[in-house]
Amino acid sequence: MKIILIGSQGRMGKEMQVFLSQNGVQYCPVDKDNVNDLGNMTGDVVLDFSSASALEQNLTFAKNRNLPIVIATTNHTKENIDKIKNQSKYLPIFMSSNFSIMFNLLNRMIGNIKKQTNQEVVLEEIHHKTKKDIPSGSAKMLIATLKRNNVVPKVVALRVGKVIGTHKVKIYGDFETLTLTHNVENRQVFCLGAYKACKFILSKKCGLYNMENLIDCM
Questions:
Q1: What mean pLDDT value characterizes the chain?
Q2: Options 2, 14, 131, 168, the catalytic residue
Q3: Domains of the chain
Q4: pTM of the model
Q5: Does the active-site annotation cover 76?
C-alpha cells in the first residue's frame, strides 16, 4: 500500500510521516510547498491531514484518480459535509474526527446513555493551548452521540499547556457519579488509527465509512 499524504507538514502530518517511516509504509508527502505536484503523484489511497478549506481540491484529485480517500480533517461546514456525502456515491470515503480506537469505543459506550430526569451529563474536553476549534471535532462527535438519545450535555472546553487530548463524560445522579475518561498520551495512536483506516478503505465499495465500521471489522 502506498499512501498519498496530504498535509504532510502539519502537526499530524509530521507525526504520520514518522509512523509510516518506522513501519516501512510507502508514502508521498504533499504540502503547500509542493501541492502543485499532486497531480503527478501515484498511490493507492489518499490520506488527508490538511485542512477543511482544501477539501474540494482533495476530493477532486481522489475522484479524478479513482482513489479511496481518508478524511482526517475537522471543522467542516455543512456545505463540506454535503460534498463528502455526494462524492461518496462515486468513491470509497472514510471520515472521522478522531482516529483513536479507544476514543471511538468511548463514543460507542455513551450511545447507551439514556435521558433521565434525575441525571445531569457533563462533557469535559482538554486540549493544548494552540488548538483553534472550540469545541473540538472529537467533542462534537461525543455531543452528537449523546443527543441521539435526547441527552444534552453541559460542555466544558479547556485549552491549556501541551495536553494532546482528554475527554471526560460525567453522569451526575442524586447520590452517585459515573465518569468515563479517555486520555491520549502520544499522537501515534491517531496515526495507527489512520493507517488502519487506509487499509480498511482499500477494499471497500463506494460509500461513506467511519471508525464504527472499522471497529466492527476488527
A1: 95
A2: 131
A3: 2-95+188-216 (3.40.50.720), 101-184 (3.30.360.10)
A4: 0.92
A5: no
